[in-house]
Amino acid sequence: MLLRLSNLFVRTLREDPADAEVASHRLLVRAGYIRRAAPGIYTWLPLGLRVLAKVEAVVREEMQAVGAQEVHFPALLPREPYEATNRWTEYGPNLFRLKDRRDNDYLLAPTHEEMFTLLVKDLYSSYKDLPVTLFQVQTKYRDEARPRAGLIRGREFVMKDAYSFDIDDAGLEASYLAQRGAYERIFTRLGLEYVIVAATSGAMGGSRSEEFLHPTAIGEDTFVRSPGGYAANVEAVTTTAPAEIDATGAPAAHVEATPDTPTIESLVALANAEHPRADGREWTAADTLKNVVLSVVHPDGTRELLVVGLPGDREVDLKRLEAALAPAEAEPAGDGDFAKNPVLVKGYIGPQVLGRAHTGDDTAIRYLVDPRVVTGSSWITGANEQGKHVFDLVAGRDFVADGTIECAEVKAGDPAPDGSGPLELARGIEIGHIFQLGRKYADALGLKVLDVNGKQVTVTMGSYGIGVTRALAALAEANHDEKGLAWPAHVAPAHVHVVATGKDPAVFEAAETIAQALSAQRVEVLYDDRPKVSPGVKFADAELLGVPLVVVVGRGLADGVVEVRPRVGGEAVSVPVAEAPERIIAMVEAL
Amino acid sequence: MLLRLSNLFVRTLREDPADAEVASHRLLVRAGYIRRAAPGIYTWLPLGLRVLAKVEAVVREEMQAVGAQEVHFPALLPREPYEATNRWTEYGPNLFRLKDRRDNDYLLAPTHEEMFTLLVKDLYSSYKDLPVTLFQVQTKYRDEARPRAGLIRGREFVMKDAYSFDIDDAGLEASYLAQRGAYERIFTRLGLEYVIVAATSGAMGGSRSEEFLHPTAIGEDTFVRSPGGYAANVEAVTTTAPAEIDATGAPAAHVEATPDTPTIESLVALANAEHPRADGREWTAADTLKNVVLSVVHPDGTRELLVVGLPGDREVDLKRLEAALAPAEAEPAGDGDFAKNPVLVKGYIGPQVLGRAHTGDDTAIRYLVDPRVVTGSSWITGANEQGKHVFDLVAGRDFVADGTIECAEVKAGDPAPDGSGPLELARGIEIGHIFQLGRKYADALGLKVLDVNGKQVTVTMGSYGIGVTRALAALAEANHDEKGLAWPAHVAPAHVHVVATGKDPAVFEAAETIAQALSAQRVEVLYDDRPKVSPGVKFADAELLGVPLVVVVGRGLADGVVEVRPRVGGEAVSVPVAEAPERIIAMVEAL
Question: Whole-structure pTM over 0.80, yes or no?
């Protein structure tokens, strides 16, 4: 393969695109790999499409290697199957919905669980047909509230989605592990660092799920790791609750005036100054109970107020909150909500007046607490009166929550839930997600087969996704420097970038000869044969485009040599022009 | 490659799907290549996807061979570019439209002229950048009023669309011819018979256009051919109008009572009986002027009445009418239209009261005539009074039309417009369409480059489409018999279908050995290793699936032979089992 820059459909840009926040976005656009067509929607130019095809090929090969069979579903799908599983509604505004000319409802599929379930139901009827794992590499749609970071969070994107169908739980576990292994091989072959973390299932449903995260500071996902090997998406971290406390003999709750304490810090300072503990221990923010009022939006659009109580030294983590409430969403309550609910005294909310369990009133505002708020624990919290807080308010004695919720931020140093040591936090991009769905979809859509005894049994399923375009962006993130992209050889749009510099026809002839010789030996060559472009621009373009080996044919030719230099790490070497193709091929093979 | 039927995701069906009208649809579903997901929307199963990939590969190779560069556009696109060319409106109900969560208008692209134009505008600025031809193989959407015939007229389908950009008309001609040549090679390589016919440009706009039709009785397109080599889609046939006639001395028009003449035949009979011509010639249907009232629907939804006059021996051809009126559509006028326009006396409409030119009234109903209605021609037509017709009504003397329209049916025997002899009619499937768009899109979207003199000039464009999934269906139409599909080797999902019959483990061992030996030599093998399926079912499935060579390992094994038979045309041969792989490879190479 020989691409000539003189006619290749590419233009490099010196300026960063205005909307680009991250390197992959900036560089993929500047290097002419992709162009924005609409927010979160991109066009693939020739070089980008070549990289994408290579990433897809690795994914396909590893899917096939574990026996997954490729199919291809439409993107435009009727409403009914998604209605049967309630996802038509649960997806809320993330789903692109439309009507056809007969006024029938359609959607642009975000994932295809329903369709795969129906297809297997359509074709298969016996345990003898199972297990089967099907996959597709297909264009998906999600109407993201905030498309961002180029390909990392887009609205039209390529995904590999696979679905396994098994007769029993052991089969599902085996299918799940086969996909998990394939994912490890895919990301290893792509040269994409990954961490496997425990995850929540979100709108997908099901029991066990794990994410493959590519660790990077620009990642949208926060995950935790412990020295003992625990790893989880921050949404999936469970809090190690302290033991319940025997509150017999604890002081009775007492309301105190707490003027001028707009912050938890000022409240703690006042408490230590004016209401010290009997045992002399200092009050800390962790002794205060912060109550946060949220407006929960259910997928059907209805709203409900919710108050969440958590230790004052922790913030609400919105992503953990969202995962805990999914498929509902939540936002901070507004002034209108407070106005309509005079029981909520802004800044002085306490649980004494909250919760259905506590008040015995089914219409009361629900009150959920962080797992650290155990029975017997004692708190400083709002007294539901302007300027006043209550001290020594004991959980289980003075108030009862309607349940617990995992929405407090996870902090570095928190204990791993499995006792494997203190957690450290890091950020990553979700590049894969595997789910044990169980029987949710099969139940909803009636996928049963005859078992060995001739009895109808519901099939158990797994679903397995790789964000293909997102993985490509992660590769760009992991492989660039300030000058441009620097692709690993196996996904680079070409192996060798030949640059002819100057105006000497002999240079162009020699470069042409080398380019053709390499191309004839199956080396993929990008040849910068542009006649009137300065060496400086050509070198800058080579660095921006990121082909792993750069061959410069120029002034050295007078001495019978060309220069070969790796795009990153490694010295330029002079190679006699006659040996150039052979030497370069060896270097390509060593990449 | 070795696929085993024991676990391949395929189920053959004995029954035809209820909605299948044509063989390709029936057989592709029955053989488990595709499944219907919604009207006109199909899922590709593993075997279908293999054939599709092979067809796409041929298309890609020939595109690249003429220097076209592959890109990939989104399917989900913003309204604005399509608004600029008016296609947002012109596409009418054929366009899938939707809104995103911010209430912005989007569409699912039916073709991508606008986006390619904008992309080239975005990247290129000089004549030195041209010519360039770009293509994509991409999923397209069209909300067909009547999706039918499986993949032949679908609502989601794969298309190869290419676009050329040139500085001048000569460049466009060269780019057009390069694509035309590539199309010939693609269809030749696919083994798909084709006819290139002159075509109309329809909603696409532009000047010259040609269609590649695959001749088949089930085709939706009618085309004509002459002995002298003229070929055209029936919509593009222009009528050879007779010379104008000197009507000096022609009899004056006279109204006659014509009771009981509900048909043209009865009118002609009455005319010959009661009002014979002075010169003794018989009246024929061709002497009557039939006036058809149509309700024209403009893309913006407004309606307008139109009367079309044509010789009584011809019907209105709705597809020619549609092409003539595009982007407007037309349907027969309804009773309400007649009620609102008392000037139209149903069954007795004559042009004396019609037309803006004739009546001088800008609000009058427009009146267009077939080109055969030349100045001086004389007609029997309605007298705009119940039970009466007018005789000897002369065009240009007694009425004037507002123009001509090509909407009369073309009949076998009509003269070719280029004088190359009488036309014959045939039917075909449109598998390719190439357009010289000219500057329509570049003008609308401001695509200009600097010419050699530093002056801004508008780029001229071509657009070139192949219905990839439709071509696959055409291949299935052309290659089947009553028993099933019969793929040409280069697009078949496998080269060899190995069938192991009976229960003897030795048979399965031998079959396995052959299948593996072939697969190791890059022969693509489908191996029917199902243990409990009868030979009859296996043979029927082999015939239905349509792999070109069938190898039967069964009873012959006792005599040391296996049987190799071509799926169609050719004798079964017995081959010693030891020589089987070698002999079969030779037969595959000869396919």
Answer: yes
